[in-house]
Design goal:
The chain is mostly beta strands and 151 residues long. It has a single domain, classed as Pnp Oxidase, Chain A (Roll), CATH 2.30.110. It is globular. It is built from 1 helix and 9 strands, in the order βββββαββββ.
């Protein structure tokens, strides 16, 4: 009897990043996205009369900065937005969506990232001894993300 509806973990190389509040085409192609994680912060609480352990009470969720990497774009609206933040202190938080896609280019999972703004921009080492692409990385701080399971 064949196994029906067998689910395999999806591949992580087929994804899309879409900046909702910026008109960026084709400025949104990235080689990697990292920082899609959250953890619960806790606060220790010592109960009177109980000396064997300390309670850990949940306080709030903490979201890690999002890091986007890609080949360096010479004329980039995204980098203009970053430089406005760093050089002119024009901090304009934006929303973006990161989608993990299936083989038909349809979203399997989608992360809605709320009120992101750049906190770091860097270019990889320029080295005449290697024939590598110049890679830029953009680090974004954001308030939170919501996870939408599609597939």
């Amino acid at each position: 009897m064949p196994i029906q509806n067998l689910q395999y973990p999806p591949a992580n190389f087929h994804f899309l990043v879409n900046f909702i509040d910026l008109k960026l085409v084709p400025d949104v192609m990235f080689q990697s996205v990292s920082g899609l994680d959250v953890q619960m912060q806790t606060e220790p609480y010592k109960e009177g009369g109980e000396n064997r352990f300390t309670y850990q009470l949940p306080v709030r969720s903490k979201f890690t900065n999002l890091t986007l990497k890609r080949g360096l774009f010479v004329h980039s609206q995204l980098i203009n937005w970053c430089m406005d933040t760093f050089n002119n202190m024009e901090i304009r938080p934006i929303n973006l969506v990161v989608s993990l896609l299936n083989e038909n280019h349809l979203p399997l999972m989608t992360w809605n990232i709320v009120n992101a703004y750049p906190v770091k921009w860097a270019v990889s080492e320029l080295n005449a001894e290697r024939s590598e692409l110049a890679i830029e990385s953009i680090e974004l701080n954001y308030q939170y993300f919501t996870l939408l399971k599609v597939g």
